[in-house]
C-alpha cells in the first residue's frame, strides 16, 4: 500500500504503521550514537586525569542509548529481511558484532565479565568495536541516508532529547544496581579499570604496549643519555642521583590500575630547559617513545624502584618513567634516552605505534 503526503512517499507495514519515516529516524539516531560512542571510547582510553571522568561517563551513556534503540532497529531489520538485498549477511554480521560489543562493555562495567578466553572484557569490548568500524562504513555507504530539512525538526530534536534523558536515567539505574548488589563494577576507577596489585612490587601486571618484548639490560652497560641546553651526557645508574619516594597510580588501558610508592629521581633535577624548549622526548631501549609537554617536567619521575625494591625486568629495569594522571602507555619502560626539544608535544601519533 502506497501513501502520499506532501510529495513524500512512505510505506505502511502489515499492521498499518508507517515504517519508512520511523526507520529513517532510527537509523540516523543509531548512526550518530555509534559514532559518538566510538569517539568517546577512543578518548576514554587516553584519559588518565579525574578531570576527564565525564568523557568515560558520556561513553557509557551513549552505549546505553544504543541499547535503547535496539527494539526500534530490530523492527527495521525485520522489515528489511523481507526484501532480497545485496550484502544482507554483512548487515547481519554488523548487527551481531554490535550486540556483542554492548554485551562485552556492559559485562565488564558491571564486573560480570572480567575475563574471557584469557582476555579481559575491556579488550573484547575494544576489539569488537574496532571490528565494527569497516562494517559501519560499508553499511552507511551501501544504504545511504540523504539529509532532509525535517531531520532537524522540532519533533526530531525532542525525540533526541528524550532518548538522551532515557539513556542518562538507564545509566544511573544501572550504576545503582551495581552498588546495591555489590558487584565488582562498583569498585572500578573512573577509567573503567579494576585495582590489581597495589603496593606490591610484583603484584601488578607486567603489561607491554603492542609489540614490545622484555629486553635484557645489563646494569653495567646501561647508560642514560640526557640532552638539554647544557649539552649531551651519559649517566650510569649510580650517576642518576639520590632517589626519593613518590606515590602515584598507574592505570593501564587493558583494564587494571595499581597505586604504588615509586622510588626515583624527578626529571626536573636531570634536565635544564632552554627558553625555546617545548617538549620532553623519552625513549626506551626497545625503540618505544613518547613526547610530553615541557610543562610536565616538574611532575615526571624517573623511577628505579617500586614498593621499596628495585624494578624487575618486566616492570622496566633499570629505569622507567612515572607519569601521574596519564595512562600506562605514557609510562615508558627501560628508559635510556631523555631529551628536551623544540618540537611541539602534539607532534606524535595519538597512541604509540611501536
Q: Could you write a compact summary of the structure shown?
A:
This protein is α+β, with helices and mostly antiparallel strands and 354 residues long. Helices cover 36% and strands 21% of the residues. Helix 1 packs antiparallel against helix 2, helix 2 crosses helix 5 and helix 3 runs antiparallel to helix 4.
Keywords for this structure?
single chain; 354 residues; alpha+beta; Sulfite Oxidase, Chain A, domain 2; 2 domains; six-stranded mixed β-sheet; five-stranded mixed β-sheet; 36% helix; 21% strand; elongated; disordered N terminus
Please describe what this structure looks like.
- The protein has 354 residues and is of the alpha+beta class.
- It has two domains: 2-192, no CATH class; 195-341, Alpha-Beta Complex (Sulfite Oxidase, Chain A, domain 2).
- Helices cover 36% and strands 21% of the residues.
- It is built from five helices and 15 strands.
- It has helices spanning 20-46, 53-81, 88-110, 121-143, 154-180, and strands spanning 2-5, 8-11, 115-116, 119-120, 194-195, 224-228, 231-235, 244-252, 256-266, 279-284, 289-293, 301-306, 309-310, 320-322, 335-341.
- Strands 5, 8, 9, 12, 13 and 14 form a six-stranded mixed sheet that branches. A five-stranded mixed sheet has the order 7-6-15-10-11, with no helix packed on it. Strands 1-2 form a two-stranded antiparallel sheet.
- Strand 1 and strand 2 form a beta hairpin.
Amino acid at each position: 500500500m502506497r501513501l502520499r503526503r506532501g510529495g513524500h512517499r512512505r510505506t505502511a507495514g502489515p499492521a498499518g504503521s508507517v515504517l519508512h519515516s520511523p526507520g529513517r529516524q532510527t537509523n540516523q539516531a543509531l548512526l550518530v550514537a555509534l559514532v559518538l560512542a566510538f569517539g568517546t571510547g577512543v578518548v576514554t582510553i587516553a584519559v588518565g586525569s579525574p578531570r576527564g571522568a565525564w568523557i568515560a561517563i558520556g561513553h557509557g551513556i551513549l552505549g546505553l542509548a544504543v541499547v535503547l534503540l535496539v527494539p526500534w532497529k530490530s523492527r527495521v531489520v525485520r522489515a528489511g529481511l523481507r526484501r532480497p538485498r545485496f550484502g544482507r549477511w554483512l548487515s547481519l554480521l554488523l548487527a551481531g558484532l554490535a550486540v556483542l560489543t554492548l554485551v562485552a562493555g556492559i559485562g565488564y562495567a558491571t564486573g560480570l565479565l572480567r575475563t574471557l578466553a584469557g582476555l579481559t572484557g575491556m579488550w573484547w569490548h575494544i576489539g569488537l568495536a574496532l571490528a565494527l568500524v569497516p562494517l559501519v562504513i560499508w553499511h552507511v555507504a551501501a544504504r545511504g541516508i540523504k539529509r532532509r530539512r525535517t531531520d532537524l525538526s522540532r519533533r526530531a530534536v525532542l525525540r533526541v532529547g528524550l532518548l538522551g534523558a532515557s539513556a542518562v536515567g538507564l545509566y544511573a539505574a544501572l550504576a545503582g544496581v551495581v552498588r546495591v548488589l555489590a558487584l565488582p563494577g562498583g569498585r572500578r576507577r573512573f577509567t573503567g579499570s579494576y585495582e590489581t596489585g597495589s603496593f606490591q612490587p610484583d603484584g601488578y601486571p607486567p603489561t607491554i604496549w603492542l609489540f614490545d618484548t622484555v629486553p635484557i639490560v645489563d646494569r653495567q652497560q646501561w647508560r642514560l643519555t640526557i640532552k638539554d641546553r647544557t649539552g649531551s651526557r651519559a649517566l650510569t645508574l649510580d650517576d642518576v642521583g639520590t632517589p626519593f619516594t613518590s606515590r602515584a597510580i598507574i592505570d593501564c588501558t587493558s583494564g587494571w590500575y595499581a597505586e604504588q610508592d615509586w622510588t626515583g629521581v624527578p626529571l626536573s633535577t636531570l634536565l635544564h630547559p632552554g627558553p625555546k624548549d617545548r617538549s620532553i622526548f623519552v625513549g626506551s631501549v626497545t625503540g618505544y617513545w613518547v613526547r610530553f609537554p615541557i610543562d610536565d617536567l616538574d611532575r615526571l619521575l624517573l623511577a628505579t624502584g617500586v614498593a621499596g625494591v628495585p624494578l624487575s625486568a618486566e616492570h622496566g629495569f633499570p629505569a622507567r618513567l612515572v607519569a601521574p594522571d596519564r595512562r600506562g602507555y605514557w609510562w615508558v619502560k627501560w628508559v635510556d634516552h631523555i631529551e628536551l626539544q623544540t618540537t611541539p608535544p602534539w607532534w606524535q601519533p595519538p597512541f604509540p605505534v611501536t
